[in-house]
Amino acid sequence: MKAAIHRRYGPPEVLRIEEVPPPPVGRRDIRVRVHASTVTSGDARLRSLRASAIFRLPIRLAFGLRGPRQPIPGMEFAGEVEAVGAEVTRFRPGQAVFGIMLRGANAEYLTIREDAAVLPIPAGLTFAEAAAVPFGALAALAFLRDVARLATGERVLVVGAAGGVGVFAVQIAKHLGAHVTGLCSAANAELVRSLGADAVIDRSAGPRGAAAQTYDVILDTIGATRFAEWRPFLAPRGRHVFLSFGVREMMQMAMTTLRRGPRVLCGFSGNDPKDFARVAAMLEAGVIRPVIGRRYRLDDIVEAHREVDGGGKRGSMVVQLIDPP
Question: What is the pTM of this model?
Answer without folding.
Answer: 0.95
